[in-house]
Amino acid sequence: MASSGSAGIPISTLQEENFRLKRAVEELSILNDLARAIGASLNSQEIMHTIVHRSIRAVNAEQGVITLVDAHASEPMKTLVRTAVSSAAYSPYHFNQSLLGWMHLNKKPLTINDPRGDERFRGVKWDESIRSLLCVPLMTKAELKGVLTVYNRKGDTDFTDDDQRLLAIIAAQSAQVVENARLYESERALIHMKEELRLASRIQSDLLPKEPPKIAGYDIAGRSIPAQMVGGDYFDFIPMDDGRLALCLGDVSGKGLPASLLMANVQATLRGQTLVSPSARECIQRANRLLYQSTSSEKFVTLFYSILDPNRHTLCFSNAGHENPFLLSEKKDPVRLSEGGVVLSIIEDFPFQEETIPFISGDIMVVFSDGITEAVNPNQELFGEARLADLLQECRSESSAGIIESIVRSVRQHAGAAPQMDDMTIVVVKRLHQ
C-alpha cells in the first residue's frame, strides 16, 4: 500500500511536485540574475560572455558558445561574432556549419545526445570529444540573429527536455539585449566613421588651393566638388622660382577615402617634382616613376600637367591619359590638348612627351575631370563633350570663375534628380586682353 500524506495524496506525487516547484524557483532565480547581469551593459561581447557563462552553469554543461549571423549578408550563414566560454580547460569546439544551416531552416531548439548516430546529421564529421549538445536560436522579430549552443552535459548524462526548455527561455530573454548592444555599437562606429570622414574632408580641402594665383594679364580659377565627403580629384597651382606657374588637374582611380589618400600622395609628389623639374615632361616622368614604386598595381592616376610662362606667354603641357582640355581661341576653332602619354603609375619608365604652345590674348584653357562629361540624367544620358564644347562657346566672355560656375550649373541642370556619381573638378586659365 502506497504511503500517503495528510490529505491522502501519495508521497511520491508530493515529492515530484516539490521537485518541480524547486526547479521552477531555481530557473526563475537564474533568469532574474541573468537579466540583472546583462541589462546594465551595452558591450555586446561582455553581454554574450555573461549569457554563455550563465547558460553553462544552468544546464551543467562543459562549454558554450554564441554565434551571431547576418541574415542580410551575401553569406547569411557566415559567423559575425563568436563568443565561447568553458567551465574548465577544454579545447574550444568549432561550431559546425551544418548546425547553423539547420537552425536557419528550422529556427527552433535542437537537442543531440548522440551526434554520430543522429539521422538528421548523417555524414557530418563531429569533434571526437563532443558527446552531446543543445542548440537554441536567438530570435528577434521572427528573424534569426544568432545561435546559443552548449556542449557535453557533465557526468556523462544527456541533456533533458527541461534543459532545452530553460536554454530556450534564456535565449528568448537575451536575444533582444544582444541585438540592442550590437545596434548601439554599430551606431557608435558609424558616428566615429563619419567624424573621421569629416576630418578627412577638411584635411583634403586644406590641400587644395585656397585662392587662385594672381598674375598680371591672366584670370585663373579652380574648383573641385567631391561626389562623397572626400574624393579623388585634385587640382593645384604651384609657383616656380623663375616666375612660371605649374597648373595641374588629376583624377585618381576609385572614390571616397582610399582615392583621397592617393590624391594626397599625388599632390605631394607633384609639388616636390615641380621644384626640381624645369619642364612638364621631366616632372611628369619623375612623378610617374615615384607613384609606380609607391602605388599598388590596380591604382592609377590620370593627370594633365602644364607650366604657364606669363613672361613669354607660352604653355608647356603633358597629358597623362586625362580628359583632353579645351583651348579656346578667338580666331580659330577650339583645340584639344592631348600630347603626353599613358596614365600614371602603370608603366614605370614611360617616355612621356610634351608640347609648348603660345597663349595669346583672349585664349582660354579649360581643364576638367570626367565627372563633368560623364554626369548622367535620370535617363542615363551623358552630359558629354559636345554639350560642354557648346557651353564654353556661350560663356567664354565670362570670368574664369564665371565659366566654372556656368559649367557646374549646366551639369546639375542636366543631371536633375540623378545623384552625383563622380567628383567634378575644373580649372580655367584665361589670358586677358591688353
Features:
434 residues, six-stranded mixed sheet, Phosphatase 2c, domain 1, 9 helices, Beta-Lactamase, alpha+beta, five-stranded antiparallel sheet, elongated, single chain
Task: Give your account of this protein's structure.
It is elongated, with a radius of gyration of 35 Å. The chain has 2 domains: 13-186, GAF domain (Beta-Lactamase); 208-431, Phosphatase 2c, domain 1, CATH 3.60.40.10. The model is unreliable at 77-81 (pLDDT under 50). 34% of the residues are buried. It is α+β, with helices and mostly antiparallel strands and 434 residues long. Helices cover 38% and strands 24% of the residues. The N and C termini lie far apart (128 Å). The strands form 3 sheets. Strands 7, 8, 9, 10, 13 and 14 form a 6-stranded mixed β-sheet that branches.
Short recap of the structure:
The protein is an alpha+beta fold and 434 residues long.
Strand content: 15-25%
**Rg, Å, rounded:** 35 Å
Series of H and E elements: HHEEHEEEHEEEHHEEEEEEEHHHE
CATH architecture of the largest domain: 4-Layer Sandwich
Residue runs with pLDDT of under 50 for 5 or more positions: 77-81
Percent range for helical residues? 25-40%
Alpha-beta content class: alpha+beta
Total helical elements: 9
Overall residue-averaged pLDDT value: 85
How far from one another are the termini? 128 Å
Kindly give the count of domains.
2
Number of strand elements: 16
**CATH superfamily of the largest domain, called what?**
PPM-type phosphatase domain
Biggest sheet architecture:
6 strands, mixed
So what's the CATH class of the largest domain? Alpha Beta
CATH fold-type name of the largest domain: Phosphatase 2c, domain 1
Morphology call: elongated
